[in-house]
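Side project, low priority. Logging it here so it doesn't get lost.
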Amino acid sequence: MNRSIHAVDIDRPDTWTRYRPGLCDSCVANCCTMPVEVKLADLVRLTLVDPFEAEHEAPKQIAKRLSKAGLIDHFNFKHEIFTLARRASGDCRFLDAATRRCTVYEQRPSTCRKHPQVGPRPGHCPYGARPRSA
């Protein structure tokens, strides 16, 4: 596919839009198609991990269970960072496909809470990006 050099592409942060207040009001949740890296505390907040399990089980064992259940795609052992599994469409598992709104907004991971201040290009977001082809 031939894309214009000025087209916003979710896989190319250099094409992203500088964040400004109100930008999210008309967005279709393009940031919710990026991989979401979370810590154990986020998994507890999302109720994917029980607080007792988080305190008494090794993160590697938790990662094994979550991977087997299809809830995570990857676990970084060195930094103890889990990458949440996404739907086949690339959407976050917690994104409502019809409304394009987060279904766990109050419990959302720190990564999501801090976006766009943190991420591939701090201060920018993939607003207006072309969706990934499935």
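Brief comment: Residues 1-6 have pLDDT under 50 and may be disordered.
Revisit when time allows.
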